């Protein structure tokens, strides 16, 4: 009987131990489950953060792409406008070429340019004229017309003699042009001058004390 009581007590103790072991294992399983759940939650949180960052980057990329599309549209508009302007310029050039061709055709054979004929006119005003001492000799006047540049040359054997130039608008009243006086060297003289009047003549006064010989030519190009 006492042995039976002992066996029952041992069985009861074993049952108690088994219950404690089961309870402990349950606690351990619960702890593992909580730890695993926490790890999963942490991983999910990380994944959410990555996804949020990716969404932000995708939004920025989409905005940049939209801006690029707008820029391309603007570029296409500018290109179209440029092509239109270029086409207009080409049309204008074509019109100018047509007008030039028409003008050239109209002028063909109608224009001719030739150098004007130039001739030299020479007039002998004094032909070895003897001028006595203290006498003034006046040459004939010359109508030089529209000619402005004339050339005076000849001979005078008075080394101190001066030939005075006189001009007139009506070939009646003459005026002394002191700026165009001609000084000889006792043998010959030459002077190129500009005369704005229509008529010109020359005057020599002999003050040498002896007779002198005067030859005078006037030349002009017309």
Summed up, what is this model?
The protein is an alpha+beta fold. The protein is built from one helix and nine strands; from the N terminus they run αβββββββββ.
List the helices and strands and how they pair.
Blueprint: H1 2-107, E1 120-131, E2 136-138, E3 142-143, E4 149-156, E5 162-168, E6 175-183, E7 188-194, E8 199-205, E9 212-221
Antiparallel strand pairs: 1-9, 2-8, 3-8, 4-7, 4-9, 5-6, 5-8
Ranges where pLDDT stays below 50 over 5 or more residues in a row are none
Number of domains: 2
Largest sheet data: 5 strands, antiparallel
Relative strand content: 25-35%
| Broad structural category | alpha+beta
* Strand segment count: 9
Globally, the shape reads rod-shaped
C-alpha termini separation: 177 Å
Structural account:
The chain is rod-shaped. The protein has 2 domains: 1-113; 120-221, Jelly Rolls (Sandwich), CATH 2.60.120. The model has no long low-confidence stretch (mean pLDDT 81). It has 222 residues and is an alpha+beta fold. A hairpin with a 6-residue loop joins strand 5 (162-168) and strand 6 (175-183). It contains 1 helix and 9 strands, in the order H-E-E-E-E-E-E-E-E-E. Strands 2, 3, 5, 6 and 8 form a 5-stranded antiparallel β-sheet that branches. A 4-stranded antiparallel β-sheet has the order 1-9-4-7, with no helix packed on it. The termini are far apart. Helix content is 48%, strand content 29%.
């Amino acid at each position: 009987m006492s042995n039976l009581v002992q066996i029952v007590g041992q069985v009861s103790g074993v049952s108690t131990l088994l219950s404690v072991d089961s309870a402990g294992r349950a606690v351990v399983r619960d702890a593992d489950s909580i730890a695993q759940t926490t790890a999963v939650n942490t991983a999910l949180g990380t994944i959410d953060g990555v996804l949020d960052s990716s969404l932000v980057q995708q939004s920025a990329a989409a905005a940049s792409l939209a801006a690029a599309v707008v820029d391309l549209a603007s570029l296409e508009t500018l290109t179209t406008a440029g092509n239109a302007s270029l086409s207009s310029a080409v049309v204008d050039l074509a019109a100018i070429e047509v007008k030039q061709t028409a003008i050239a055709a109209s002028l063909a054979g109608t224009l001719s340019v030739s150098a004007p004929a130039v001739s030299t006119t020479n007039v002998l005003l004094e032909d070895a004229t003897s001028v006595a001492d203290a006498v003034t000799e006046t040459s004939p006047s010359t109508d030089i017309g529209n000619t402005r540049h004339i050339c005076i040359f000849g001979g005078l054997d008075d080394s101190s003699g001066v030939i005075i130039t006189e001009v007139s608008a009506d070939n009646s009243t003459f005026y002394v042009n002191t700026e165009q006086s001609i000084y000889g060297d006792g043998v010959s003289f030459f002077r190129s001058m500009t005369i704005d009047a229509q008529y010109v003549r020359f005057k020599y006064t002999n003050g040498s004390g002896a007779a002198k010989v005067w030859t005078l030519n006037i030349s002009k190009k017309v």
